[in-house]
Design brief:
- The protein starts with a helix and ends with a helix.
- It is built from six helices and two strands, in the order αααβααβα.
- A two-stranded parallel sheet has the order 1-2.
- The relative contact order is 0.14.
- The chain has 196 residues and is mainly α.
- The protein has one domain.
């Protein structure tokens, strides 16, 4: 069974390698490949989100970045749903114990939060090591980084507990699709009403 520490090691590797402009290759559609790809998308989006907030950004660039964010969000959701399918299939035949409870968050969406958290840690650590800012800024970021590490530990425990309880039938999961409408030309009125 997957463990949080293993998943986080892939996310750490992904973030580091993206910033160093190298890329690991895993067997296509393996769990490692899906997790690595998921974090790569999150990492790209992180930087696009930074750029879109520049006050000097020309309007044409703003539109380009907004469309890129929409595309990345869809890819991110698709990969999370692929992970959901994996976990759903892994636990589909587990017999539920009496009074088992449904978990509101699937393992994949918890993993999604962990991927973003890994990015927060990487970038907050960058702030802690800046030499072009004040000591107050560095110390403030150091305290935030400590909280992020605590959250990382807590989310790891939550994921491992959830996977264990799903495997024991103490919890069960349902898979709901996100059903994003804004990218769908048949569901977004601004798109289907303006078809030429």
């Amino acid at each position: 069974m997957l463990k949080a520490n293993y998943i986080l090691s892939i996310f750490e590797k992904s973030v580091k390698e993206w910033h160093e402009k190298i890329e690991s290759k895993y067997d296509k559609d393996s769990m490692e490949d899906i997790l690595y790809s998921k974090n790569q998308i999150d990492t790209i989006q992180w930087h696009v989100e930074d750029e879109i907030r520049r006050p000097d950004l020309p309007a044409v660039e703003l539109v380009k970045f907004k469309r890129e964010i929409d595309s990345l969000n869809q890819k991110r959701t698709d990969l999370v749903e692929k992970l959901d399918d994996y976990f759903y299939n892994q636990f589909i035949n587990v017999k539920k114990v009496e009074n088992s409870k449904m978990n509101s968050e699937t393992p994949a969406w918890l993993i999604d939060r962990m991927s973003i958290l890994e990015l927060k840690i990487f970038h907050m650590d960058e702030q802690v090591h800046r030499t072009d800012t004040t000591e107050v800024h560095v110390e403030t970021c150091r305290k935030k980084l400590e909280i992020l590490f605590e959250q990382k530990n807590d989310l790891s425990i939550c994921l491992d507990d959830l996977l264990l309880e799903l495997g024991e039938g103490k919890k069960y999961m349902k898979v709901y699709r996100q059903m994003k409408m804004y990218n769908d030309q048949n569901l977004n009125p601004s798109l289907y009403k303006n078809k030429s």
